[in-house]
Specification:
Layout: E1 8-9, E2 19-23, E3 30-34, E4 38-42, E5 49-52, E6 66-69, E7 74-78, E8 84-90, E9 95-98, E10 115-118, E11 123-127, E12 131-136, E13 143-147, E14 157-166, E15 172-180, E16 185-191, E17 198-199, E18 214-218, E19 227-233, E20 236-237, E21 243-246, E22 254-255
Length: 257
């Protein structure tokens, strides 16, 4: 595209701890959000960033919590006020039209704990420490997808991350990482419904002695068996390795970096 006159954004992220990126599953397009800097996008794998129109009222004052792109032209972002915004991207101009914000119903929705996953079929899941919600492109509200009490076995917890993918059989898989108040780190799995979560056996990384505060999960588009996990604990690296890969949906892990 012709980027003459388009505002570029510095790629130096070293002084910004509140930074999130979301990759489009099929196009060379990335949405990023940086603390106190609004939204941005990249079409060269993050080398150069351009300003991306933020929704009205978007709160990025502390840390941006989540972003996720569908395999079409829909983007979901969550801000520091527990609002979820739905945008429709124009890939000819890289503009975006935003809907009115949606707020997850119920109590216990806290700042910095919202995570979003796209599972195909125009469907997203949004998780908080209080509950799990679903959203289908075209809707105007989040729908409860089952209580999160099963997530974490009902203990008080911090939600670290959420990822999902289609399972190849018309359903989907969700994985979540949590850290309970005893600083035990665990991985949880739900299939085709967020109403029942079961802990994934993973002796390699479960129950670490120090709370892993920075954990990220990723599944390739349409492949629910391949999972990547990266993390650090109390601002100190977990490893090496600090990056793991699972080829069986999180049941076992291999350190790769």
């Amino acid at each position: 595209r012709d980027v003459t006159g388009v505002q570029t954004v510095s790629s130096d992220l070293s002084s910004y701890w509140g930074f999130t990126v979301a990759f489009h599953p099929t196009q060379k397009f990335v949405v990023g959000m940086r603390q106190n800097s609004g939204l941005m996008y990249s079409i060269d794998d993050g080398v150069t960033w351009f300003a991306f129109a933020s929704p009205s009222g978007f709160n990025d004052g502390r840390q941006v919590t989540a972003a996720c792109l569908s395999d079409g032209n829909t983007v979901l972002v969550a801000d520091d006020s527990s609002n979820v915004y739905v945008g429709t991207i124009d890939f000819a101009t890289y503009g975006c039209t935003w809907q009115a914000p949606m707020t997850p119903p119920g109590t216990g929705v806290g700042l910095g704990v919202m995570r979003i996953a796209f599972v195909g079929g125009n469907r997203f899941f949004i998780a908080t420490t209080a509950d799990v919600y679903s959203f289908t492109v075209g809707a105007t509200a989040l729908q409860p997808a089952g209580t999160a009490n099963g997530l974490g076995g009902g203990v008080a917890m911090n939600l670290l991350d959420l990822c999902g993918a289609a399972d190849g059989a018309g359903g989907y898989v969700l994985l979540a990482t949590i850290c309970d108040t005893s600083k035990n780190f665990t991985v949880w799995r739900a299939t085709s419904s967020a109403t029942t979560w079961t802990q994934v056996p993973n002796a390699l990384i479960a129950g670490t002695a120090t709370a892993p505060l920075f954990i990220k999960l990723a599944m390739p588009y349409g492949n629910s068996n391949l999972v990547y996990l990266a993390g650090a604990t109390d601002q100190v690296n977990l490893g090496p390795p600090n990056l793991w890969r699972s080829s069986n949906g999180g049941t076992s892990w291999t350190g790769i970096l």
